Sequence to fold (181 residues):
Amino acid sequence: MNAMTAENLRSAFGGESQAHMRYRIWGSKAGNEGFPTVERLFMATSDAEEVHATLHFNALKDQAGDFSVTSMAGFGLGSTSENLQGAIDGEMFEVEQMYPAYIAVAEMQGEKAAISAMRFAIEAEKVHAELFTKAKEAVDKGEDLKADTVLLCPVCGFITLTGVEANCPICNAKKELFVEY
Ligand SMILES: [Fe+2]
Ligand SMILES: [Fe+2]
Fold:
């Protein structure tokens, strides 16, 4: 793998790994504040970020060794409304800046495994940003998020609050594989 794509994938692995932890912490806070469905959304999204970190790690499978990894990492344990804003900002950074730039480099370098891992991630992050925005609108009215279900595609990290008719709209995985929170 070309050095620059490998470095970008390691950085994305770092960012996704930290988002995984951050969402668990923010999810517990949402539960403590009396927003159980927001907690479920945070926990499902935490696991989606684990899916992305795993995709990136697997794409880097021939890159063994120790590296310093630099990635954007949000901090701060605020109110659930503030935490949701932090989550929206992080997702939008990935959607608008990080993944488009990394995918462009990977395309220039013909790195197929990296491109497919990061395409799944960017498409799922768009959905995460929408759902966190919906959650913040509810919390800002003093209400919990309304959802029929919270379902995660464990292949690409797609999340739905209404279920799917057929296969995953991002990765085409069968809906029977989806995990409910
Ligand atoms: Fe995300
Ligand atoms: Fe999927």
In short: The longest strand covers residues 151-152. DSSP finds four helices and three strands in the chain. The helical segments are 3-32, 36-59, 80-108, 112-139. The radius of gyration is 16 Å.
